[in-house]
Design a protein that fits this description.
By secondary structure, the protein is an alpha+beta fold. About 30% of the residues lie in helices and about 30% in strands. α6 (about 205-220) links the parallel β11 and β12.
């Protein structure tokens, strides 16, 4: 039985209880973060912490997440993941329990903090090298996608559309522009240049997105942050997604149209290998290598 964290206590998951008046349950009033851990070492945790602080400030939830590193590390240890090749920790903070109303509670509630850890199994390399497929869907989300809010119904529907279509990913399109995936960031390659949507309120400011941009810059691969019209997306040489549990995932088909020559491209492969090297170096640090 897995051990979870809830409001200052570590306890078996089956024993965790949250009030039915919790505003996360009633109104999706909260934020969350998912941090990868390689060899028990949290990956870019400070960046995740910064993003959570930003989301909490935007929602005006009075919680200081400074102590969450200890919670993340303790959950990895208690769930036998301290030396796991790849794992992740999910942390959610809601405004807390209060009488239901759309406005903030008149008496400030105590935030509810819930977290759990789990193992992550990346696809086998031969599966990765066959590539993955995606469809485009209309972007019906709200205009503050940069807040990593727990209200993910639009993401659920988009990802289910992908499942129904028999593919792995969904790409949001707003006003003819391909923005990002239902749970990851989107990149395309044109004539050797890696292109991704610029940071705005219409995309999540992904931690893995930033890592991949850093890796591309370090490898001498040109990067442009600009809009990608969906028509151009179909003509890309390569497409890939990035995310905490996506890492770098190549897409060889969108809406039934072959991307490039229909195989995983060299830049996707190069950046994936660079990403793996970055995670392996973190794992080596964790075991004192």
């Amino acid at each position: 039985m897995s051990t979870v964290y809830l409001d200052g206590s570590y306890l078996p998951k089956a024993e965790a209880r949250v009030s039915v008046d919790d505003r996360g349950f009633l109104l999706s009033d909260g934020v969350y973060e998912v941090t990868a851990a390689y060899g028990g070492r949290l990956f870019r945790f400070e960046k995740h912490l910064e993003r959570m602080k930003s989301g909490l400030a935007a929602l005006r939830i009075g919680f200081d997440p400074a102590g969450l590193r200890e919670v993340n590390e303790e959950l990895l240890a208690r769930n036998g993941l301290a030396e796991a090749e790849a794992a992740y920790v999910y942390v959610q903070v809601t405004r807390g329990a209060a009488p239901r109303s759309h406005a903030f509670p008149k008496v400030e509630a105590t935030p509810t903090v819930y977290a759990f850890a789990n193992r992550y199994q990346r696809p086998e390399r031969d599966r990765w090298e066959r590539g993955f497929r995606a469809i485009t869907v209309p972007d019906m989300r709200w205009a503050r996608v940069d807040i990593k809010a727990i209200s993910l119904l639009a993401n659920v529907l988009a990802q289910q559309a992908a499942v129904d279509a028999g593919v792995e990913d969904a790409i949001y399109v707003r006003d003819g522009i391909a923005l990002e995936g239902a749970h990851n960031n989107l990149f395309a390659v044109f004539d050797g240049v890696v292109v991704t949507a610029p940071k705005s309120n219409y995309i999540l400011h992904g931690i893995s997105r930033d890592v991949v941009i850093e890796l591309a810059n370090a490898s001498g691969i040109p990067v442009e942050e600009r809009s990608i019209p969906v028509g151009d997306l179909y003509r890309a040489d390569e497409i890939f997604f990035t995310g905490t549990t996506t890492e770098v995932r190549p897409t060889i088909e969108v809406d039934g149209r072959r991307i490039g020559d229909g195989s995983v491209g060299p830049i996707s492969t190069r950046l994936f290998d660079a990403f793996l090297s970055a995670t392996l170096s973190r794992a080596a640090e964790a075991v004192g290598a």
